[in-house]
Amino acid sequence: MKGISLTWLCSIFLSLVAMSANAQGIKWHPGHYMMLGTQDSHASRLNSIEEVGNERSVAGVLVRIRWADIETSRGVYDFSKLDAYLAKVKSRPTRKQLVIRIIDRSFDGRSSGIVPNYMLSSAYNGGIVRTKAGYAARLWEPAVMDRLIALHSAIGRRYDDEARFEGLATEETTLGMNQPFPGSYSHAALAAQYRRLVRAVRDAAPRSNFFLFTNFIGSPSVMEDLMQSLMVERGAAGGSNVFPGDKTQGQQVWTGVYGGDYRLVLALSSGVETGELADYSLQQIGSWAYNELRLHHVFWVRNTWASGASKRWSTGILPYLRTNPPVRTRCPDSYGWCVTN
Questions:
Q1: I want to staple 200 with a disulfide (CB 3.0 to 4.6 A). Which of 47, 61, 149, 301 is the partner?
Q2: Helix (H) or strand (E) holding 254
Q3: Helices (H), strands (E): how many in the chain?
Q4: DSSP label at 215?
């Protein structure tokens, strides 16, 4: 912990929160969520939300949507799809929450449609960088992060007052680039830009969760600094996967492998993707999520294509969720005040 006690830091922070006249509660609806993909059409997403309308075991829906699908030109945002998802969530007979996850990269080798077209210019060094699986936004560069901050802030300001809007989520902290890295890149530079993003989202949406998907970013010390900044800014740590017995760097840090244990301090979440569904049973994944990672929000992919029937959404995952596997529900210390209505 670089010579500083997590317990001491948390107590100081909570004292400051208690003294702040501007401190606000954060919406808090932990549970199991259905996660929809960027490959899903707008109509199919609305249908999927409608299908879980009576499912009390499904707390909400995470919708993954590409940056370029919302920012149509510089500073011009099309919120029509997000408005439709929120309206559909609000119309369900059992309460559902909405999480919006902004996708700033591709994993299929394509370079188009990741960032708005205006960013594919010299002012943003082309806006994107080649990765092992495709392309990603050049998030370590301040000019690019400025635009991502503007997008998140616009979404946050629009929906923060909506009780059914649980919050925003990011892509993974690692960009997955091959070495040698671009000359302007460093893990510390990328972490610094993520800290800017967390701070900006908290300013724009003080009542909403912000899930930073902290899987890998250089050394454990860089990740721990980022985790501490999440605690101070009342952000939430997350990840893209739950692999029983195998932790990401972020999961190692928050479970205390390298120092302090953040599992009572931070809001914690992770996705469940097709990779782990292929190798582990739903019960193994759920047990690891609850007992070891101690997750509050678990985002299950609406899997309709991978593995067998026991791992598909309607024939495996949803029946498993109907058994009410537990999640952690205690309001995290860093939030200070959770709003459940």
A1: 149
A2: helix 249-254
A3: 11, 14
A4: S
Question: What Å distances lie between residue 280 and 32, 185, 244, 273, 284, CA to CA?
Answer: 18, 36, 8, 11, 6
* Neighbouring C-alpha atoms within 13 Å toward the C-beta of 257: 15
Q: 28 exposed, middle or buried (CB, 10 Å; 0-12, 13-18, 19+)? A: buried
pLDDT tens digits for the chain (341 residues)? 444 455 555 555 544 544 343 468 999 999 999 999 999 999 999 999 999 999 999 999 999 999 999 999 999 999 999 999 999 999 999 999 999 999 999 999 999 999 999 999 999 999 999 999 999 999 999 999 999 999 999 999 999 999 999 999 999 999 999 999 999 999 999 999 999 999 999 999 999 999 999 999 999 999 999 999 999 999 999 999 999 999 999 999 999 999 999 998 999 999 999 999 999 999 999 999 999 999 999 999 999 999 999 999 999 999 999 999 999 999 999 999 999 99
All residues at 6 or more sequence positions from 290 whose CB lies less than 8 Å from its CB, including other chains = 325, 326, 327, 328
Q: Is 183 in contact with 140 (CB distance < 8 Å)?
A: no
d(C-alpha 302, C-alpha 47), whole Å = 12
CATH of 6-339, one of 1.20.1250.20, 3.40.50.720, 3.20.20.80, 3.40.50.150: 3.20.20.80
CA distance 196 to 185: 16
Tokens of 4: 């500083």
Domain ranges of the chain: 6-339
* Contact (Cβ atoms closer than 8 angstroms) between residue 7 and residue 264: no
DSSP letter for 75, please.
T
Q: What are phi and psi of 217, to 5 degrees?
A: -165, 85
With 0.85 as the threshold, say if the pTM is over it.
yes
| Cα–Cα–Cα angle for 318, 324, 59, rounded to 5 degrees | 70
